[in-house]
Amino acid sequence: MPRIFLLLLLAFFPTLLHAHQIAEITMSLDLKGEKIEGVVQADAAYMLEEFRGDEDEEAKDLAWLRGQGPDGWAKIEAEAITYWRDCFTLLADGTPIPWTMEIPAFHETAPAFLSEGEPEELPMLDVAVHAQLPPGAKHLDIRWKEPFGVVLVVLTGTGPDAGTKPIMSGEQMTIAERSATEEDLKPKPLSIPDWIKVGFQHILPDGLDHILFVLGLFLLVPKWKPLLGQTLAFTVAHSISLAAATLGWVNLPAQPVEILIAASIAWVGIENLCVKELGKGRLLLVGLFGFIHGLSFASALAGILPKDQPEKLPGALLGFNIGVELGQVALLAIAFACFAWLGDRFVWVKRIGSVLVGLAGLTLLIERASGIDFIPFF
Q1: Where are the transmembrane segments (predicted)?
Q2: Contacts of 348 (CB under 8 A, 6+ apart)
């Protein structure tokens, strides 16, 4: 990851007669990876609102700073932070990010400025600034708004890469850009909630095969209890085959699996037209078809399952399977909302819907066996 070397430096340029009438502030940032650090050298007196911007105020010196004592130092630090909060905003890809500021010398048992430097010198202090660039952020901007129109001059880089970017009060400017690194481009590990989302999306809206299959189950007996039993059997079965295929225990070519899935859809649609009630054999068939569908899941997830991190694999499979079950339940809820209220008239929905499911399954079967797409979105 490239390192942009900066030194955060705040220098005030007083005129000969008016110490606190400032024309510009010079700043530089040190961006190391995602860590933003800096050191600001500031005129302690300018940090106090009572002196800031006063053309007639005489310059303060080191003797004045020493005489402020702990209470005065705390006030200087507090007002310095307030000033910068009002004037200075750091943004990552356009979004403000938090930062902190402190004056380390004020927190030391024996501050160096008490013994170092001549009393008539300007009361300059080192101020530390810290921030964190969010992971993946590519642009670091500064927004500057100073009440007295002071220009913020930002120094970037060092040596031949050094640059100067003046920012007028009220302006915003990009001061650092980070290109994507190999580490940035690596896929981030998914959490269990992420895997639940992936599983859900494999049903709704992406899983046309599974939508047709579950709707076929719904059309035979639109009742929650038997449907939940069937979807649970389906989920348990595909969980077993998904795990087995992921671990390399089962390995079937993709085309036969897809053909069998199409056959399962056609079977459900046709069987609905031949039977009136849910039989025990349907539950066994649903489990068998679930096992086949799980092999298809394994093929689809081959590129994103954490096979090289065995400790994360159980969580990934668990989350995905939960998501699939939730997707099936959501699909059933939609089906109930659309059709279950029809009562006796639902028999026509069952017949027409089952015919359509059966035809869709047969179409998929022919397409996958022949390799010819008759219907593009299938």
Answers
A1: 283-305, 317-342, 348-366
A2: none
Residue 116 sits at φ, ψ, to 5 deg, of -105, 145
Same domain, 90 and 239: no
Residue type at position 146 = E
The reported pLDDT for the residue numbered 163 is 67
Question: What pLDDT does residue 376 have?
Answer: 56
Same domain for 171 and 206: no
Same domain for 26 and 52? yes
Rounded CA-CA distance 73/127 in Å is 13
Can you tell me the distance from the alpha carbon of 178 to that of 110, in angstroms, rounded to the nearest whole number? 40
CA–CA dist 211, 231 (Å, integer):
12
Q: Is residue 2 part of a domain?
A: no
Question: What domain range includes position 19?
Answer: 11-183
User: Residue 114 domain-assigned?
Assistant: yes
Residue 172 φ then ψ, to 5°: -130, 140
Mean pLDDT by 10 residues, the chain (378 residues): 35 36 70 77 80 72 89 90 89 91 88 87 83 85 85 68 75 77 54 87 84 88 86 88 85 84 89 79 84 83 72 85 90 84 74 89 88 63
Q: Where are the beta strands (DSSP E) in the chain?
A: 11-12, 24-28, 30-32, 35-43, 88-92, 95-96, 99-102, 124-132, 139-144, 151-156, 163-167, 171-177
Residue 33 contacts residue 140 (beta carbons within 8 Å):
no
In this structure, are 129 and 199 located in the same domain?
no
Cβ atoms 170, 144 nearer than 8 A? yes
- Amino acid symbol at 205: P
**Res 185: pLDDT:** 41
Is 51 in contact with 57 (CB distance < 8 Å)?
yes
**Are 155 and 200 in a shared domain?**
no
The number of domains in the chain is: 2
Q: Same domain, yes or no, for 280 and 363?
A: yes
CB atoms within 10 A of CB 96: 11
378 domain-assigned: no
Domain final residue, candidates 131, 164, 183:
183
